[in-house]
Amino acid sequence: MAIRLLIADDHHIVRRGLVFFLKTQKNIEIIGEASNGEEAVSMAEAFRPDVILMDLDMPVMNGIEATREITKRSMPSKIMILTSFSDQDHVIPAIEAGAAGYQLKDVQPDVLVQAIEKLVKGENEIHPKATAHLLKQLSQRQSEQNELNVLTKREKDVLREIAAGKSNKEIAAALFITEKTVKTHVSNLLSKLQVTDRTQAALLAVRLGIHKY
To answer: Which parts of the sequence carry 4-aspartylphosphate (predicted)?
Structure first.
């Protein structure tokens, strides 16, 4: 059975090029073309393709927003990002939004076909450049998580309250300790996390999810 494919890209020439090549593949059927993210969501819901080739930089609704919307609606389609961007500011949000694959537009045609086939089989297929950024981000997060491990349970409690925007007085009331003790904990956790102020500590807490503990 052929892989039913939807192409979402705002550049007509890019879509034409993809259609021209992919139509030559016996195991791929092009079931639609979308010129923006909103159209991609509507067509995904209407046609239920196996795979969606999704550009990121599109009008009306960008590729990350469209990917997130399709994922939220629990559609069966696997989403392969096909873009020119390989930096972590695009890779990480796309993967977090629900993309199962990430390829760059300079990918060799045969490699793209293989990536589509692997996606259908349930394998995530990510371009080496994008993978490098993912690994870098994961390494950074692990390093930050290790930093949090040096905090005591009480210091983490105080950090969580700082992330909620509470003053020392409010933290003291919430944790049933004195303001003096709060100040000591704040000083200790800032030193251990190697940050200069409460705002930086709060951002770190939010990024790592400690504010949800």
So the answer is: 55
